[in-house]
Write a structure and sequence with these properties.
This protein is of the alpha/beta class. It has a single domain, classed as Alpha-Beta Barrel (TIM Barrel), CATH 3.20.20. It is about 35% helix and about 20% strand. The chain has 9 helices and 13 strands. The longest helix is centred in the middle third of the chain and has 19 residues. The structure holds zinc ion. The site of zinc ion has 6 residues, from strand 1.
């Protein structure tokens, strides 16, 4: 059996329920889980510049693209609240699994949130974010999705106390315990096609994903081929989505991109050897 986790990032106070519903209704209506990677307290007004990758290259976008255009430059924190629109919507769809995606989703003086090294500050931010998750979802999350795909050794040491695992693009030796460093270094020399996309550091699970298969900058027709090809060589796929890319720039849906995604979702649902599961179920499976 092959296991696919569908992960959508940057869910925050500003996310509109209809955006998620447009993307995931076909899966949710069949009772399939989708993992929402939630930013507890999104922060606008933080200049990211080249950290915005293709959004900087293509649009010279200085502020985070995951905020609505009129909120991007506003230096304001917008925490989720127990009765806000998106939290109410998430409660109406029990198929969603909630993962935590950083705290404010910002870079502080050019340092990405996950790369902070001050242990006191990291702990303070984690405690504040978990209190928000507890208030909105009745419990803090078990899984952490790394903003911008990288964390410092100091951050990951602390994350291990709070979470069962993390999801990121590529793990390195600084992400694992001393006793596992050689093993982590050895993985770097393995071909992508044979390397299992996960690493068990004791009871802490690190899950890799194969880069941006689903992207508004990709060839929409090629996205399915990339999915098929990954599943040919691997038993686990964490499929990463960014809902706001389908509505760029927070307007009408991009029909071509959306239909390519729905075609991939239908393909995954159709395959008898593929099971769409949550991070929690995958964790239980790997540790059983
Ligand atoms: Zn993000």
């Amino acid at each position: 059996m092959k296991y696919v986790v569908i992960r959508d990032d940057d869910i925050c106070f500003f996310t509109k329920p209809e955006m998620l519903e447009t993307l995931y209704k076909p899966l949710l209506d069949l009772g399939k889980p989708v993992t929402l990677s939630v930013v507890p307290a999104i922060h606008g007004g933080q200049s990211a510049g080249p950290l915005n990758g293709p959004f900087w290259d293509r649009f010279q976008l200085d502020y985070s693209p995951c905020l609505p255009p009129h909120k991007r430059a506003e230096a304001h924190v917008s925490p989720l609240t127990a009765d806000c629109e998106i939290v109410n919507y998430i409660h109406s769809r029990p198929e969603y699994e909630i993962a935590q995606h950083g705290y404010n989703h910002i870079a502080i003086e050019g340092i990405r949130e996950g790369l902070l090294t001050d242990r006191h500050l990291i702990t303070e931010r984690l405690e504040a974010s978990r209190a928000i998750m507890q208030e909105c979802f009745g419990r803090p999350s078990d899984f952490f999705v790394v903003p911008w795909d990288d964390v410092s050794a100091e951050t990951i040491t602390i994350l291990k106390h709070y979470f069962k695992g993390i999801s990121l693009h590529r793990l390195g030796q600084r992400h694992v315990s001393w006793s596992r460093k050689l093993q982590a270094i050895g993985r770097r020399f393995m071909n992508d096609r044979i390397r299992a996309p996960y690493f068990q550091d004791g009871d802490f699970l690190l899950l890799e994903y194969p880069g941006p298969i689903l992207s508004m900058f990709n060839d929409y027709k090629g996205m399915k081929e990339l999915t098929v090809s990954w599943l040919k060589n691997h038993d686990i796929l964490v499929m990463v989505n960014h809902y706001w890319e389908y509505f760029w720039d927070w307007g009408e849906p991009n029909r071509e991109f959306l239909s390519a995604w729905h075609d991939i979702a239908a393909y995954l649902l159709d395959r008898p050897d593929v099971e769409i599961i949550s991070f929690s179920t995958l964790y239980d499976h790997l540790y059983s």
